[in-house]
Structure formats: structure tokens, C-alpha cells
Design goal:
Layout lengths: L1 E7 L5 H14 L4 E7 L5 H6 L2 E9 L2 E2 L1 H14 L8 E6 L5 H4 L12
Parallel strand pairs: 1-2, 1-3, 3-5
Antiparallel strand pairs: 3-4
Bound molecules: flavin mononucleotide.
The site of flavin mononucleotide has 17 residues, from helix 1 and strand 3.
Length: 114
Amino acid sequence: MKTLLIVWHSMTGGTRQMAEAAAEGARSEVGASVRLLAAPQADAGGVLAADGYLFATPENLASMAGLMKDFFDRCYYPALGRIEGRPYAAMVCAGSDGSGAARPRSSASAPAGG
Ligand SMILES: Cc1cc2nc3c(=O)[nH]c(=O)nc-3n(C[C@H](O)[C@H](O)[C@H](O)COP(=O)(O)O)c2cc1C
């Protein structure tokens, strides 16, 4: 059975509702096992054990929430080179359009001279 790991953070409940709705939808799929974890409870072991991922975050100060960043930071080295090719998606709960949190970061998009 394939396992979907959903990692979320929410301060006022919006992202949590989105993550729970996604989990309910995924669980209705035959053959899908779903782990729904708040970001502080998620770790690299859970990441390595899953077959696919859904990351759910509020947009805070034009970026992902700090606890989601902490999750990615903690898992970076243990997961590096071990999960390439696995499917993932992200959900953003925002006061405006969420584009700040969804925007990919790369040196190509960094401001010149920064
Ligand atoms: C500290 C803080 C910073 C925020 N910054 C943004 C922002 O940059 N852009 C935006 O669209 N919404 C921003 N918001 C609004 C939240 O993204 C919005 O209320 C969202 O629904 C919160 O999700 P939650 O209920 O899961 O915590 C901010 C909220 C907080 C508390």
C-alpha cells in the first residue's frame, strides 16, 4: 500500500482544515494510507517511509510558515539524495494569493546585488 505523508502547520486553523480535507479525500482512495502530521511531529524517518507528500502551510510574511521551514531544515540532510522522483504537492492558505509562499527560491530569482 502506498503512503501519503501530509505535513502541515496552522496558527489559526485554516491550513489545518485544508490538510484534514485533503487527508479525508486521499483516504477515500482505495489502497492509500495517509499520515497526517503537524510539522513539529514530522521528521526525516516519516519522510523516507512515505511514497508521496503533501505540504500545507499558511503564507506568513510572504513565505512559508517558520515551522514548515524548520521541518524542511531538519529533514534536509537525512533525505538528501534519497527521495528524488517521489511525487509531491503543496497547499498554501493565505490572506491574499499565497504566491509568496508558493514561489520557488533559486539564485536565478534572487534580487541583483543581494
Ligand atoms: C505573522 C503573519 C504573517 C502573515 N503574512 C501574510 C502574507 O505575507 N501574505 C498573505 O497573503 N497572508 C499573510 N498572513 C495571513 C495568513 O496567511 C492567513 O490568515 C492564513 O489563512 C493563516 O492560515 P492558518 O489559519 O492556517 O494559520 C499572515 C498572517 C500572520 C499571522
